[in-house]
Amino acid sequence: MQGIFILALAGLTSVGAYFFGIGRLGLSSGSFGAAIGKMLEAVGTTLVFLAVNLAMAVTIVLAVRGVTGSFVSVYVTDDAVWMGLSLLQGLTFQWWRGLSGKPR
Known about the structure:
By secondary structure, the protein is mostly helical. It folds into two domains: 30 residues; 73 residues, no CATH class. The protein contains three helices and no strands. Helix 2 crosses helix 3. The protein starts with a helix and ends with a helix. The relative contact order is 0.09.
């Protein structure tokens, strides 16, 4: 039930932002599809950074276990902060790439 509420609320705010953008800000409805494409690129880049960050974290934990012989829990990688940091990394990388004018 909580998931449906969250999805419904996000959907309502998205629809509201769409109409606000078209009506009040004068944004083009034709460029909305391109904006969705850019968003999906950013999500993909964020997921790549998340996978690399978590893989490196697990590798470091296993290396510390092997070198020191002491137990270090892999649960240190179980934190929502990884997603936030990966989002910042992904967005920064996407904007950097866009501002550099480099082709894909």
